[in-house]
Amino acid sequence: xTVFRGRLHLFARANVRMGIRAVQHTSVDVKAFSKGQVPLPxxxxxxxxxxxxxxxxxxxxxxxxxxxxxxxxALAPVSFPERxxxxxxxxxxxxxxxxxxxxxxxxxxxxxxxxxxxxxxxxLVEKDDVVLxxxxxxxxxxxHYNTSEPSKDSSLARMTxxxxxxxxxxxxxxxxxxxxxxxxxxxxxxxxRGEYSVVTTEDAIRGKSARPAYACGLKAPYGRFVDLADGxxxxxxxxxxxxxxxxxxxxxGRPFAENKRNKRFEIHRSFTVVREPLQRFLSGYGTxxxxxxxSGHWWPFNTTMSEPEKFEAFVDLLRREGDGLVTSRPxxxxxxxxxxxxxxxxxxxxxxxxxxxxxxxxxxxxKVLLRDLPLLDPRNQTLEPSLPPxxxxxxxxxxxxxxxxxxxxxxxxxxxxxxxxxxxxGYEVPVM
Length: 432
Hints:
- Helices cover 29% and strands 26% of the residues.
- The chain is an alpha+beta fold.
- The strands form 7 sheets. Strands 6, 7, 8, 9 and 11 form a 5-stranded antiparallel β-sheet that branches.
- The two termini are 28 Å apart.
C-alpha cells in the first residue's frame, strides 16, 4: 500500500491469462478511507500497463511500489522466457495506472522460466542515496524447475543508487509515458486507427473514419506554442476547453497558436491538461447554455422546459449528432467545442501527445513537466508551477449538484457518451 497525491494505492498479483503473470491496481481517496466511509469508493481493479511492454512474452510476478519525490516507483522481478533473461526492473508513474517502460537495474540468474532474485519491498530514500534490498536465490525456484544448478542458501543484498541518478532515471522514464491512446484499454473502446490514434465517441456516433472538417475560425489544432528556456523548438500546449484552460492561458501568457515571435513551428513536443469527464461535461453544458442564450446562438430548447428536461434533451442531441454540431454549424461551432470529448481533442493534434496533466493535481503535475520542458513566460522568465487564481469558475451560474440529483437519466446518458474518456484518461466512473 502506498499513499500518493491524496490516494491510497494498492497493488496485487494478477493472472491476465493462464500462465501469464501481471500486476493489478486499485486506489481510494485517503480522506474517504480515513473517515471509514461505507462503502469505500475503491476504483475497480485493473492491470497496470507498462509502456512498450507485452505480457504475452514475459512475466511480471509482482511489484513493490513506493513514492519517490513526485512519482510512484515500482520495483518488479521480470522474466523473458524466450530469451532466457531475467532481472529486477524499475518503472515510474504519476497515477498508478499508466507506467513508463520497464528499466533493468539489476540482472538476475534465470531458472526454468523465472528469475531467482527478487526485490524486497521498501525503498529507503536517504540524503544522497536510494537504497533497496534484493533477496538472492529465493527458495524453491531452482528445485521447482529441476535445474542443473542446485539451490543455494537465500541471502539479502543491499543495493545503493545515487539519488540524483535515480531522479534522472525517473525523469527520463516519465517522459515516455505520454499518449493514453497507446493504452490497450483506450484502443478497445471503439477501435484504433494507428499507434497513437483511436476512433472517438464522435466518430462512432456519425460512422466516420476520417477527422471532421474544422469549422471554426480558430486554427487547428486548438492551442498555442510556448518557448523553452533551453532554446529548443517551442512546446505546443493543446488546449481542451473546460479543463482549467483559462487559468492556464493566463499562466502561460501566450497569444493563441503563435509564440512571441509570431512564427509558426512544427509540433515536436506537446502537453495538455485533462479533467474528470463528467465534471468537465457539466461545466461545458453550463457554458454552452449560458453563451447560447446570451449571444443569440442556436439553442434548441425552449424556456418552458425544466432544467433536468433541458439537460436530458441536450445529452440526447449530443449523442445523436456528435461533432456534427461543430462541423455543420460554423457560426456556433466553437461554442460546441466545450462538450466534445477530451479524446476528440487529442485526435486534432495529428501526432502523439507527449505529456497529459490532470486538472485535479495540476500544480504537482506541472512540477514534473517543467523539469523536462522549462517553459518561458512572455518576459523570457522560466515559469514556476504556481498558478494564478482560478478563472471563469461560475459561467452561467449553473448548479451542477442539484442537476446530478434531479436528472439521473441525463447523467446516466452523459456517462455513456463519456465512456471512452473514462477508459482512456484513467478516471473512475462515478456511481450514480
